[in-house]
Specification:
Shape: globular
Number of domains: 2
Helix content: 40-55%
CATH architecture of the largest domain: Orthogonal Bundle
Radius of gyration: 23 Å
Order of helices and strands: EHEHHEEEEHHHEHHEEHHHHHHHHH
Strand order of the largest sheet: 1-3-4
CATH class of the largest domain: Mainly Alpha
Oligomer: single chain
Number of helices: 17
CATH topology of the largest domain: Arc Repressor Mutant, subunit A
Strand content: 5-15%
Length: 395
């Protein structure tokens, strides 16, 4: 897990930088890649009410799509939630008065699936620690979903929280093996095997994939390696994947307009960081011209997601085909009815089916009104939401 979310429940947010991390929460590394991603999405979903509400909820189908599960594979989802409840988080730190505090907690105190909703909770002690940016850092999910290796994501999580100090500090190899989830393996008792199979591949993926660059250093006793640390610096080439804390945008006029509409502080900063003030301002003007809109915030979110306005130009060629235009209208309405998290999951699920670079770029630009993907979009929504086009005749 890691820093603070910010991308429309798909991204994450890095809060104001702390001068010093006073502690680290060590999480057992024996999580699959999907379990680790699941843990981060659950934390992101709960973060704003982490200490004020005892339990949290998220649509189970959306959760599956966000993590990459088959949305009907509840067996896998149940197993992963069970794994999180059985995984231990441990901390050893100084409290605000300088006293030593050790603690241990399961990652989730409970989780239930009922009526298509996943409800879950954290222990109060762990929630307090995870909500404090001096202790814990949330991971940007834009970065998380680029990882293909569980070891690499685990290493990134455990290094990213120390980016401001430039080093993880020395870890014993026993602790490092535990963080990577390979403790108890006789094979990885050999540093040669640990280095070749875990450290080198994980470091390479972190440096290629994420917003930090890390370099391992080892310490020996005699000829045997006993400790390891990672030197950390920001990766300027991928800094765009990370989000600043948004403190500056709070003083802008566009931020103020968003807040007046009822957009939350976090979501307003996410939109401004992801889309830029100019684009958000343009969408605000566009949404302001619409009549009979039930939810201005929901419509604005759909406009930002789907690039409404640009889409008006994009779907001009289909105007003559009323049946197709009506189907695309149904798609727009379906997208608008989805939550921000669901919309992001829907788009990524669709993009997984598109391999041609030109078509992917067209979808990135025009969203669900992409001219190059009209047929694929209609087929996707017909399967995704059976009956969505009922009552529309013609091709």
């Amino acid at each position: 897990m890691d820093e603070i979310p910010r991308d429309r429940l798909t991204g994450s947010l890095r809060r104001v930088a702390v001068k010093k991390h006073v502690a680290a929460i060590h999480v057992s590394g024996k999580l699959t890649l999907l379990q680790r991603k699941l843990s981060n999405v659950l934390l992101l979903n709960a973060y704003d009410t982490l200490t004020s509400q005892p339990r949290h909820q998220i649509d189970a189908r959306t959760l599956c799509l966000m993590i990459g599960y088959n949305s009907n594979d509840l067996v896998t989802l149940k197993a992963s939630l069970k794994g999180l409840a059985e995984t231990v988080a441990e901390w050893d730190m100084l409290d605000s008065e300088g006293r030593q505090e050790w603690g241990v907690s399961s990652l989730l105190s409970y989780a239930t699936l009922k009526g298509g909703v996943c409800e879950y909770a954290y222990s109060p002690a762990l929630a307090d620690k995870m909500h404090d940016p001096k202790v814990f850092a949330l991971i940007n999910l834009n970065i998380q979903r680029r990882f293909t290796s569980g070891h690499a994501l685990a290493l990134y999580e455990n290094c990213f929280r120390f980016v401001r100090t430039g080093s993880t500090g020395w870890w014993s190899l026993d602790l490092f093996r535990r963080l990577m989830g390979v403790d108890g393996s006789q094979y990885y008792e050999s540093f040669k095997h640990l280095n070749a199979k875990v450290i080198k591949p994980a470091v390479a993926e972190v440096n290629k994939t994420s917003n930090i660059v890390i370099r391992p250093e080892t310490r020996k006793r005699g000829r045997a390696v006993t400790d390891i640390r990672f030197l950390i610096k920001e990766n300027p080439q991928l800094a765009i994947l990370d989000l600043d804390d948004g403190a500056g945008v709070r003083h802008g006029a566009v931020y103020a307009r968003l807040r007046e509409l009822g957009v939350s502080d976090r979501l307003a900063r996410q939109w401004l960081t992801s889309h830029g003030e100019e684009q958000v301002a343009a969408k605000l003007e566009y949404v302001g011209t619409r009549k009979n809109v039930k939810s201005m915030v929901g419509y604005l979110s759909a406009a930002l997601d789907g690039d409404f306005g640009i889409e008006a130009q994009a779907d001009a060629p289909v105007a003559a085909n009323s049946a197709q235009a009506r189907r695309l209208g149904r798609v727009q309405a379906a997208v608008q009815a989805r939550t921000p998290t669901q919309r992001d999951a829907d788009k990524r699920l669709f993009l997984n089916q598109i391999t041609e670079a030109g078509r992917r770029a067209d979808f990135e630009r025009f969203g669900w009104m992409s001219p190059l993907n009209k047929a694929a979009i209609l087929a996707f929504w017909d399967e995704f939401s059976p009956g969505i086009f009922d009552g529309i005749d013609g091709d």
